[in-house]
Amino acid sequence: MRSDELSAVLTRLGHSIEPDDNATTTDVRRYRVAETGTRIFVVADPDPYGYGGPDPDAPGPRAGDVRSLSLSPSWWRSEN
Hints:
This protein is α+β, with helices and mostly antiparallel strands. The protein has one helix spanning 3-12, and strands at residues 17-19, 28-33, 38-43, 66-71. A 4-stranded antiparallel beta sheet has the order 1-2-3-4.
């Protein structure tokens, strides 16, 4: 699934998506769904180690694809 598609669905449901500033990696961008304990991990660089450009015909992640979701327990949520 593309991150822009997921963001559009969540926004229609009344949620806001915020960048989760984490400079420890450059191959994945992290976002959080503000009112929940959910984190969205999005592929930023499908070839982080420089083995070559992505083959458009090969299966695999593309920049902008949702890599994973993390659903955190309620005690991880910010009470802001």
